[in-house]
Amino acid sequence: PWLAKRMALLGEAIVETLILEKGTGEVLRRLSDPFWFQSLGAVMGMDWHSSGITTSVMGALKRAINPRSAELGLYITGGKGKYSRQTPDELMRIGEKTGLDAEYLVRCSKLSAKVDNTAIQDGYQLYLHNFIVSKEGQWTVVQQGMSDATSLARRYHWHSPDLQSFVEEPHTAIEGQNQGLILNMTDKGAKASRNSVMEMSREQPDKMLAEARKIVMPNHHEVRAEDVNLKRLGSVLWLAHEKRPEDFEELLLLKGVGPRTLQSLALVSEVIYGSPSRFKDPARFSFAHGGKDGHPFPVPVKTYDETLSTLKTAIDRSKLGFTDKAEALKNLSKITERAEKGFTPNANFKKVIEKERKDSWKYGGRTVFGKAQKPKGGDQLELF
Predict the structure, then answer these.
(1) Exposure class string for 337-349: b at 16+ Cβ within 10 A, else e
(2) Is residue 75 part of a domain?
(3) How many domains does the chain have?
(4) Rg (CA), the chain
(5) Which residues contact residue 55 at a Cβ distance below 8 angstroms, ignoring those fewer than 6 apart?
(6) 93: which of 41, 218, 250, 265 is 20 to 30 A away, CA to CA?
(7) Cβ neighbours of 26 (radius 10 Å)
């Protein structure tokens, strides 16, 4: 509960900021991007490469967004197991409230699940289905299957504005490890097979899964240097720990925010305002709030709460027409991006993690195994 509550609040703040800045369509587009989705989960404190990130992130967003759906213009249906089967009923109720064509939305939901369970025969059985729809009727699907043979998960992303056909390359992305040769009836090359059942029955399962964008999580659980763009992480650490907000005119309104909270805010700012190319290394975003399993370090609960407070203040002020604090948060990601040009990271990656773990008790560090304890003795570690 200690993390789930905060995940819901942070997810709500990020989504609301995106809606205020760019509208519901931008939220749907980002949810259909597997790199952004994984980065969102990491910045929220989930295990950076766990299959559980899908269930936890979508569950947190559903709890946070749905009570405010009428206000935000975004509705999240479905979920894991039995909740996935409630999607049609949820969509029908949304249709009654909004006037959206619920029968059409139900058909889209069922077709997307049918395609990923049947048309793509990759050994993964769907167990999670989330259908997210905006007040304008655009939608995104995030669903996940599990392989009984390998216990690995595969996530499927759909986005209605990018959808040309339900049966020909309908995905924006499929996330998971390459398992070799599969039968993919949505591949462009399988058109002839789709047109003839007899021909399909004679086809060999020799179509490689065509992935619009690939994201493959490694087998190791810890965060390693090769999982992270060190130049990008280094510029965040430099800004947070070597500089002060008053050193930059654009950040003066964040004066008084401590270095550790500034580090988290910089990464959250990037999740909100960053371009798609910024999310190729989702593990980097775990340096905002760690991970509940302790990788790369325990969740700094005090820092998490300070981040939430700063975001909430910025959102509330924006609603009143005062966008100064929101602009300061936006500038965080701009400054770190500018700093990357010609930046040579000189922080020792292992020492960065070691310092975070050693200082974790100061920030209310916590994992599923308990609270971080103050280390006994030892010299203070420096980042640079």
Answers:
(1) bebbeeeebebeb
(2) yes
(3) 2
(4) 22
(5) 79, 80, 128, 144
(6) 41
(7) 14
CB 184 within 8 A of CB 194: no
Within this chain, do residues 25 and 169 fall inside the same structural domain, yes or no? Answer: yes
Alpha helices in the chain, H assignment, sequence order: 2-22, 24-31, 34-43, 52-65, 69-72, 87-98, 102-114, 191-195, 197-202, 230-241, 259-273, 286-289, 301-319, 324-340, 349-359
- Mind listing the pLDDT tens digit for each residue in 281-336? 999 999 999 999 999 999 999 999 999 999 999 999 999 898 888 999 999 989 99
The answer to the question of residue 231 being in a domain is yes
Residue numbers of the domain that contains 234: 225-371
Asked whether residue 378 is assigned to any structural domain, the reply reads no
Instruction: Using pLDDT thresholds of 50, 70 and 90, give the confidence band for residue 186.
Output: low
Same domain flag for 192 and 61: yes
**Residue 198, Cβ neighbours under 10 Å: how many?**
7
Note whether residue 207 is domain-resident: no
Do residues 84 and 127 make contact, with C-beta atoms less than 8 angstroms apart? yes
Residues 153 and 283 in one domain: no
* Dist. CA 335–CA 313, nearest whole Å: 21
**Among candidate residues 202, 217, 239, the one where a domain is terminated:** 202
DSSP state of 379: P
Same domain, 88 and 233: no
